[in-house]
Prior knowledge:
The chain starts with 7 loop residues before the first strand and ends in a 22-residue tail after the last helix. The protein has 226 residues and is an all-beta fold. The protein has one helix and 20 strands. Strand 1 and strand 2 (19-29) form a beta hairpin. The model has no long low-confidence stretch (mean pLDDT 84).
Amino acid sequence: MADDLPDTILYQCPDCADVTEHKILKAKMGRSSVSGTFQCGECGRVFTGTIRLPKKIEVKVMFSDQDVTEVTRTVLMEDEIVQVGDEFDLDDGRHVQITYIDNAEGKRRKSCPAPEVKALWVKSFDILHVKASINDYKRTYPMYLEAEPDDEFTIGMIMNFDTWDAVIHAIKTKTKLMRRGTAEARDIVRIYGKKLNGQRPEEILVDEDEPFDESLYDDGTMDLDE
């Protein structure tokens, strides 16, 4: 198989009647299409035909870094749908995340088909500042932890600060409040922790069946952007 021929391709399956991922079993690459035998990844249907390749679309990218905005460009595929929160790499290797999308009519959208995108507003997504609320049994301290997007935080993990340590006993993600398990930094809204005063971490972990009161960890930043 040619080096520039992908292993799979998105196409409207004749049986599923929906756009699904198809495995390319045997094919020949043309200038704007692929002819060969394909298998739907959803229903398993195998068929022979010609699939037109999506065109590349160059769009404007507005990269914001504090008070400075830099204009650059990126390439999308015409069958692509971009959404706020999507991540990608700029040509120079910087990893970014979409914060706003301007469509052709100049309106802000949370998602948009590539052909209708006028500009993507993005921010750096290489290093995140994960919010944490750490309670020492008297008051709660707002903290920030530097992490890469795919760094993982686990309930029961010990966090080391300059003068004391704390144990993670709850994690609020974009979709739920976790009382056990692991979450990636990119999905975390806030980490809740208890200061360790000589105890073992398991001695102060909150029972996941007990109600969790977020208001006990109000450090003055709880409602700013959550």
